[in-house]
Each structure stands twice: as structure tokens, then as C-alpha cells.
Amino acid sequence: MSASDLSLLAYCGLYCGACSFKIAFLESERGHLLSMPAKYDKYKSARLENCPGCRANDQDSGCKIRNCAKERKLAHCGDCGDFPCKMVAAFSSDGIPHHSEILANLGAIREIGADAWLVHERDRFTCSCGKRLSWYTRKCIHKR
Prior knowledge:
Order of helices and strands: HHHHHH
Oligomer: single chain
Number of strands: 0
């Protein structure tokens, strides 16, 4: 990973390389969506689409965290002097399981740097067979 390749690091501290939607699209494997929480049921049978991530210039999901980080010219929320702010804390405790990881993720990024963290996360979410794991499929769906 290079210092300029932050495309898989969301401003909030999520690792986009483990996104169930992204992986389902890249691997044409809907199984990554099927184990997601019920909140996402309406997407589980929808057409698979790639998410370019929140860093894509044309991506505007209305995310307040993204907008704040961009306005402050931050690489991620861990670089903010107000970290952890109320907005990030609320996001991390909104009941969506993978959101609960962001405070620890941002703390690790602050400690070891974004490049090392991205390598660590890539390795953590890669099966020994080489296929990707996702937030909700921590065991390979390709190994039967």
C-alpha cells in the first residue's frame, strides 16, 4: 500500500476492503450480503453494484462525517483535533455491528499509520485461499 492509496480507508475509519457490498460485486458472490443484519434485507436481492467508496470525488452520499473531514482537509477522522467527536461516537454506537469498530480502527491508524493499518486489514480480511472476507462473513464462503 502506498501513502496516497487511501481508497479503502473511509474517513470514519471503516475498512472498505471488507464491505459486503463491494466484495459481493467484485466476486459476483451474493453470499456476502446474505449474512448482513436485517437492516440491509432490501439490498440482499438487489442488483450487485460497486461502491467506489466515500473518497471518490463524484461520491456524495450526504455523509456528515465525510463532509466534515473533507472540509477540514483530513485524511481520516483520527487526524482531527476533536477526535473522537460526538458525530463519530454516535456513528460507532448506532447499533450496526461493523460501525462499532471505527474508534478502535482510528486509534490503530493514529498509532501505526494508515499504510500499515491498510495492510493489516487487507490481511485480516483475506482467506488463506486468497478470497476476500467481509464484515459479516469472517469465514470463507468459498470453502465448503
